[in-house]
Amino acid sequence: MDADLLELDEVTTYYAQMRILEGITLRVGAGELVCLLGGNASGKSTTLKTILGIVRPRSGRVLLEGEDISNWPVPQRIANGVAIVPENRRLFGQMTVRENLEMGAVLRHGESLDEDFDRVHELFPRLQERESQLAGTLSGGEQQMVAMGRALMSKPRLLLMDEPSMGLSPALVQQNFRIIKEVHESGVSVLMVEQNAAMALSIADRGYVLSTGEIVLEGAAAELLKSEDLKKAYLGR
Fold first, then answer.
1. Are 96 and 134 a contacting pair, CB within 8 Å?
2. CA–CA–CA angle 148, 110, 89 (5° rounding)
3. Which of 21, 56, 110, 160 could bond 84 through an S-S bridge, CB–CB 3.0 to 4.6 Å?
4. Residue 220 per-residue DSSP state
């Protein structure tokens, strides 16, 4: 078994007085691609926000390579190799593609970014063609490329992805997941929140299923793909 890069240990979170996550325990091993599945309002995005530090646990711990980072601020987590591709991409629409990519490296003071731009452009040749174009004028698929490229510019060890297929055409979804798999194979660990269970499990090593803030199912991706329990947990019947 790979050493754990990330571990959530009995994490419970609240928004005000509303409990969102209840005793969540999950892990992402070094070099793993893990998917977190579930329907709307199951707590998937809150899990990612808790890992990134936007939401703090009421109880439990968030561990990065065994170190408790539960009280670390967001910039410290990013500086230590955690990055996110947020839901709906959240680009700076009035900035160029290149400027958006540079924002991903804002904590890398004084470092040369040439190799990182080369890597992003190799994954997304379209972004090199569009580098002086305002990000807000790009198509949805191109904006997703910018969001992924921006995250990679921070040189992450752990890439969090929140609904990467949302709003994309079927052809772009296929392309997007091919790129996620390629990024993972380059050595980046990935925790991906996704509603498209079959697509996510087709490229993942393992998966977890959330329902109303609790993990109700977990296992190897190949086993979950065949699981009747997954259909029950995911579809609620």
1. yes
2. 15
3. 160
4. E
Neighbours of 116 (CB within 10 A): 20
Which structure tokens are listed for 172? 């772009």
> Would you say residue 79 has pLDDT above 80?
yes
204 Cβ contact partners less than 8 Å away, ≥ 6 residues apart: 33, 34, 35, 192, 221
Helices 140-152 and 114-123 pack at an angle, to 10 degrees, of 150
Q: Which domain holds residue 224?
A: 1-81+158-167+189-237
pLDDT in tens, 147-185: 889 999 988 999 999 988 887 788 888 888 888 888 898
Strands 59-64 and 67-68, by their bridges, are antiparallel
Residue 144 covered by a domain: no
- Residue pLDDT, tens place only, 187-196: 899 999 988 8
- The CATH number of residue 63's host domain is 3.40.50.300
Distance from C-alpha of 133 to C-alpha of 94, rounded to nearest angstrom: 9
